[in-house]
Amino acid sequence: SSLSLLPLQINQCESRQIKGLPLLRPALVTMSVHHSAASMKDILVPEASEFAQWEAEGVASDCPVTAVIPTWKSLTTLDMSRNSLQCIDDSVKLIPKVEFLDLSYNELTMVENLQHLYNLIHLDLSYNKLTVLEGVHTKLGNIKTLNLAGNQLDSLSGLNKLYSLVNLDLSSNKLAQLEEIKNIGTLPCLEKLSLTGNPMCIIPDYRTKVLAQFWDRASEVCLDSTITTEKELDTVEVLKAIQKAKEAKDRMASSEKKVHPLLTGRTRAAARAEMSVRIAGQKLQLKGSFK
Which SUPFAM superfamilies does the protein's record reference (predicted)? Predict the structure, then answer.
């Protein structure tokens, strides 16, 4: 089918005026739609307006269905950037083969329904209105490239289980706390990370403090498109050592709390002081016995 060779581009058209899109479902491989759609449904299932209940072909449904819609069997690249999309609706069930999805420059506030895209590898959600990413790993299992630049994120919780992620762009968000990097510090495949334009970038030694949170993989991560220097790696080693010491101290403190759960802060401090006095006394006695 010669159609499979032709990328379709739609720009500045009212989606209702576009006729014949469903005919392209079997063969179209690449589609770009800009300044034309208020929803993904308008483009992916224009006939939805005619049916009260529809379901994607091959998807089991619990409720009565008035239409079974064929999937876009060949579509692997969909670019719907620069529209006025407010949500990622369930019409994505119709594009199960998509590997590249660009939804940048829209009005999205949530990451939803993407669990239907088993083949999705590259996702661009930059310049939307995202504020939280909670549970994103349940929807983006095999993602390698994720662009979240230009949103309103102040937390990275939700990214900690994206184990396939290689490239992550978080530039121009509201990330202010270095603690947030812990959420991505254990990702085993991450190689490129961009954090430029976040409040945390003005923290002194920001680069080494971020890289130190990648532990043994610090030398493998390229931060803000800048190769890490040997000097930075030396500093990272020092920061890691300090962090390990702090964690060991915290563990000891928490085990002490478990031993004395009933002691208040004041009595606990008193008990510690008493113990150190006792130890000092024992040392003095020992010294005296050696004279």
Answer: Outer arm dynein light chain 1 (SSF52075)
Residues 168 and 101 in one domain: yes
Torsions phi, psi for 62 (to 5 deg): -85, -30
| Same domain flag for 277 and 192 | no
Whether 104 and 233 share a structural domain: yes
Together in a domain, 244 and 266? no
What is the spatial order of strands in the sheet that 167-169 belongs to?
8-11, 30-34, 77-79, 100-102, 122-124, 145-147, 167-169, 192-194, 222-223
- Are 57 and 151 found together in one domain? yes
Q: DSSP secondary-structure letter at 27?
A: T
Say if residue 227 is exposed, middle or buried (CB neighbours under 10 Å; 0-12, 13-18, 19+): exposed
Structural domain range at position 72 = 2-251
> For residue range 15-40, what is the model confidence (pLDDT) as tens digits?
888 888 999 999 999 999 999 999 99
**SS3 breakdown of the chain: % helix, strand, coil, rounded to 5?**
40, 10, 50
